[in-house]
Amino acid sequence: MRNPPDIPTAFVQQMEHWLGSEARDLIAALSDKPWRGLRYAAVARPHGELPQSLAPFLGDGVPWAPDGFYLNPGPSLGYTVLHQAGSFYLQDPSAMAVAVALDPQPGERILDLCAAPGGKTTYAALLAARRGGAQLVANDIHRDRVLALAENVERVGAPCAITNESPDALAEAWPQAFDAIVVDAPCSGEGMFRKDPAVRKEWRPDAPERFQALQKDILRHALTMLKPGGRLVYSTCTLNPLENEQVVLWLLEHYPVELEPLPDWSEWRPARSDWAGNREEVRLAKRLWPHLGRGEGHFVARLRLCEPVADKPRRRSKTATPSTDKAWDGWLASLVTEVPPAWRRTSVRKTIVFADALGDLALPSLRVLRPGPPLAERKGQVFVPHHAASRLLPVGFFRATVEIDEEAAIRYLAGEALTAPGGLDLEAPFCAVAHEGFHLGFAKRAPGRLNNLYPRGLRSTRIESLAALAGAVASSS
Length: 477
Ligand SMILES: C[S@@+](CC[C@H](N)C(=O)[O-])C[C@H]1O[C@@H](n2cnc3c(N)ncnc32)[C@H](O)[C@@H]1O
What we know:
- This is RNA methyltransferase.
- This protein is an alpha+beta fold and 477 residues long.
- Helix content is 27%, strand content 22%.
- The structure holds S-adenosylmethionine.
């Protein structure tokens, strides 16, 4: 058999060991183009739909993710107004299954332990919002990756707290604290071979074994943070059974957990019990194989913890009390028509006012990047709205909003001032700026114009018009 260029020979041999002659089909499929996907993402409008202007880019719906679509071949949509506005998230179709497996329930306390750059967190936040909301904490151990996580979480308006900790530090702080935990584990990434040449290049024959040790270590800590009866969703984007079925087998053999059935997703296959000591229940976990389904390689298992693993539940720490700051309350009233209760329980760090999403999980020992979504910056006695706050509410909830067309939005995202339209509420010093019903950020009233408050660090002159990109799709098809 001829291997596709730069697929490691040792990987082919390992797959031949597990799959026998079927390995030929898998390796051949790795020469195909990867499947790209996109899903609806705006958490503030959880029942909304993708804007019509995206229609030329969308192929079939993703069978296992009600919000997902395959993308037609063509240019990336990452530098478009609607992407910057958080209306959609570019995500591999197979990866969408993880939040669907998590199935957030109303009012749950959920931890995404390996969350960066935020694909699963942001989808979990959307699904939770649809059910009336949950308390969501997203963590990643790596400082640079956690910043990307914060940017994505803010872009789509997911109201979660973000920590930057190791699993063992969190386990010590939060025993039996969560109703559900996602471990989308660091892995050898074999499912990403088709998509990312760097992953193929970095892969080593001992990678599955090394990652298995790390995955067990992360899971050990994750389980201590689950309440009895809580759910653990374990997922990887790799193919090797060492990191998938055999990790699940290890969990079943060492912890009071049981596997739960997942929805009946077409194109996904049962995990292989013959790779897990013939434990029949392992088949309840699922795999997407690149040669058998429309997506990149992925593995998902959902387990329930039957008895607690940690000795005792955590000690509760103090929660933020609702604001008694008259200046803050007055300012909020000038900004929004109806103040969300979460915006009155704040946590102030340096000059930034955050909605407190950590509640009694807050502990001084933890590295917290964001205790919740940033709402405003305090400058002396005045407040300036943080652009992330615009994403937390649907259009119509700020006292003043200007809806702009794509051309004006491209200029706004590049940092230009806007012309002030007539008819704005003159009492409101700040107004939200929206495009196609999705907030982009804020502007401040000035004589005859609106000064641009879109953060300098996010401004870009690379944003392209969807109409121009749709032309490229048409010519490539
Ligand atoms: C597969 S990625 C997560 C992708 C993410 N869930 C998403 O959907 O965008 C695995 C993550 O695990 C993190 N990680 C690596 N080593 C870790 C460790 N020892 N403990 C916790 N997380 C770790 C990495 O920084 C990486 O962001």
